[in-house]
Amino acid sequence: MAGGDAKAKAKASGGGKKKEVKKETGLGLVNRKDENFGEWYSEVVVNGEMIEYYDISGCYILRPWAMAIWDIMQKFFDAEIKKMDIQNCYFPLFVSPGVLQKEKDHVEGFAPEVAWVTKSGESELEVPIAIRPTSETVMYPYYSKWIRGHRDLPLKLNQWCNVVRWEFSHPTPFIRSREFLWQEGHTAFATQAEADAEVLDILELYRRIYEEYLAIPVTKGKKSELEKFAGGLYTTSVEAFVPNTGRGIQGATSHCLGQNFAKMFEINFENEKGEKGMVWQNSWAYSTRTIGVMVMVHGDDKGLVLPPKVASVQVIVIPVPYKDADTQGIFDAVAATVDTLSEAGIRAKSDLRDNYSPGWKYSHWEMKGVPLRIEIGPKDLANNQVRAVRRDNAAKIDIPRAQLVEQVKEMLDNIQQSLFDAAKQKRDACIQTVKTWDEFMEALSQRKMILAPWCDDEEVEKDVKGRTKGEMGAAKSLCSPFDQPELPEGTTCFASEKPAKKWTYWGRSY
Fold this sequence. Notes:
The chain is α+β, with helices and mostly antiparallel strands. Helix content is about 35%, strand content about 25%. It has helices at about 1-10, 35-45, 65-85, 95-100, 105-110, 135-145, 190-215, 260-265, 290-300, 325-345, 360-365, 380, 405-430, 435-445, 460-465, and strands at about 50-55, 60, 85-90, 95, 115-120, 125-130, 155-165, 180-190, 220, 235-240, 245-260, 270, 275-280, 280-285, 315-320, 350, 370-375, 385-390, 395-400, 430-435, 450-455, 475-480, 500-510. The strands form 5 sheets. Strands 9-10-11-23-22 form a 5-stranded mixed β-barrel. A 5-stranded mixed beta sheet has the order 16-15-17-18-19, with helices on both faces. The radius of gyration is 26 Å and the shape is globular. The chain starts with a helix and ends with a strand.
């Protein structure tokens, strides 16, 4: 912990006096975002008190600062799906091998990352038990039991849980971990039209999480056959982009499973006319990966930068007493400021620790990404004002006490919008439209998110992956955006020169 380091340093330098104010910060980041992104990211999530590394590789402790963000997103999403008559439930963590292996394409897609329980105490289990990588095969045997007739439909369930995927390649906090938190929705309908409509309704909620809460621009689109969910009919996603690494990142997915799982698990129903039919199913999920994308997009060389909507502390109030100042008056003003803001629904707190200098506190709360800092010193007390400093651009403004709530609310709204606008501007600057293979390779070498005309052929996509393999990883299709630019007649595919059917985003990805 950064704070602990500072205390340790003070002791090492012989500082044994009571209430010695520590001037050295010990808080700065060693790595720069533009120079060593991977190391910078690891440093920010630890120093910003989001995670702690655990003694099992690929597993991380989510600290309260990160969990608070997850809670805020969960509160929003849970309320929205309840409006859609989706109910929460909980299914067990364990899966029997017979059930897991029922849907061939599905299990093949997940097989390399399934973790297995093989022992109980010292005894070998007769039949090993899998730990869920996702819950289709856990839940659907029971859908088949619960759904008998058209009156049992639609069945719309969601669970907030953890899943385990034993990833071996480059574990990264939030982005790629062996255990993570998510919600997974599983719904069953009588008709494809109902299923198709829900896929897009849920995708819109995911867009809102990214754009309205995390201030990250995303592209809605459809995944290619190669990249879609194993065993599903089609997959839609919201795709984000990290300009510093030139990599796309799948933000969240909403799948239409079609009738494939219904066939395997015999989820049949009788319609109003007494005819037998199979249900149409969807599954959809977003995970704690969202938090990692936020850190990557908004963070800077001072640490985290939290959008106000998801910050558990939106305003930190810091007293700045000088030697002969009216210290009690300043502390009273700090307490009154926190009370006034809290009563107005703003998440505010004070930092009254007397063994740290104001400068140390500034650095500490900047590292943690708090959107707005309020300083109160003797001059502010005398002028009946406070000084507000924005985390995103360091702009300072003096606010009269009488206008405190109004101006702070306005500043927080402005910070939220500014973060989105800045992220969108950076993302848009990385998008490049290409028509030919040479242009594609040039754009890829410049770490772009590439929009190219494509023939929608699976073999061609495999070929693109094969031809772009290298140290940085192969390029693949990210999504075909729903918002399609015009495709002039006679346009050919950038990779195969066959007639192009659609525009598709390509790039390297996480």
